[in-house]
Amino acid sequence: MSKRNEIGYERVLVPVGDKSDPNRLTELSSILVDPRRGAVRFTHVTTDRSFVGSQENWRTGSDSVAESQHTLREEGIESTGTIRTASSALDGILEESEEYEADVVLIGWTDKDSVSSLVDKLLRKASCDVIVFSADRDPIDTDSILVPVVVQPDENRLQMLAIMSQRTDASITFAYVAGDEGTEEEGRALLDQSAERLAEYGVQAETELKSASNAVGALGELSGDHDVMVIGTSRGWWLRKTLFGRKTDKIAKEAQCSLLMHKWQGEVPPES
Q: What does the buried/exposed string (b/e) look like for 233-253 if buried means 16 or more CB atoms within 10 Å of the residue's CB?
């Protein structure tokens, strides 16, 4: 990650499948990469070792990689592409991440009903930031970002939020749902602290305090007024031990906008 007041990741890795980019990771990478000295690598991993299957996977994977590269090059962003064979998609992504010395891996959250096993393991094993994105719309057109908080956001998440805001001119709204997990007084203090810390990165945030017995439902309602909702993995969540269980599924299903899950380097998600 670039230092404070600098915008963007320097090395972004985007695994691509053999189909179109349903979660608009190509567009998201163009927002998060440092436009001055950053680069994006697209990689396709094939696990089919049969000759016919391997040839077909390489062909379709190459087409997907080339299409994404072309999109970024038209925007003046440096990009490269690789195709590799591995024992599993997870192993291939992790190997490519280490070789590329990636600062962040972007991966799609295609099924909002569940966090896939691959994504879950990638969040736990990757030595860099991981961003999981489920696109409701083109992230380039983001005007408003919702960030639920229960503890002060880590500086890594603040930097990521600042990047998105500065590159898209989107507003940031920190939200706190008071209820079983905390009082309105605690929420107001936390919201003010979060906004003050983000201001250190050159971004002025709005705040929203809501009281509700059902925090997930309240966030779902709030998300209807925003384009992207950003959630964390373990730290910064009110039910840390259930994030990868039904709680995550409910948050995703209730969300009325794009959903971005961010794990910063060094953050370890809870065990399933």
A: bbbbbbeeeebbeebbbbbbe
Walk across the sheet containing 11-15 and list its strands.
78-85, 39-46, 11-15, 104-108, 129-134, 258-263, 228-231, 144-148, 171-178, 205-211
DSSP summary character for residue 113: T
pLDDT of residue 20: 59
CB neighbour list of residue 238: distance below 8 Å, 6 or more residues apart: 150, 181, 182, 215
Homologous superfamily in CATH for domain 11-134: HUPs (3.40.50.620)
SS3 assignment, position 150: coil
Enter the DSSP assignment of 242.
G
DSSP annotation of 129 reads E
Q: Kindly report the CATH number that applies to the domain delimited by 139-263.
A: 3.40.50.620
> How far is the C-alpha of 167 from the C-alpha of 176, rounded, in Å?
25
The residue behind tokens 């602290």 is: 193
Instruction: Count other C-beta atoms under 10 Å from residue 20's C-beta.
Output: 11
Taking only the tens place, the pLDDT of each residue in 218-253 is 989 999 999 999 987 654 443 333 333 445 667 777
- List the domain boundaries for the chain: 11-134, 139-263
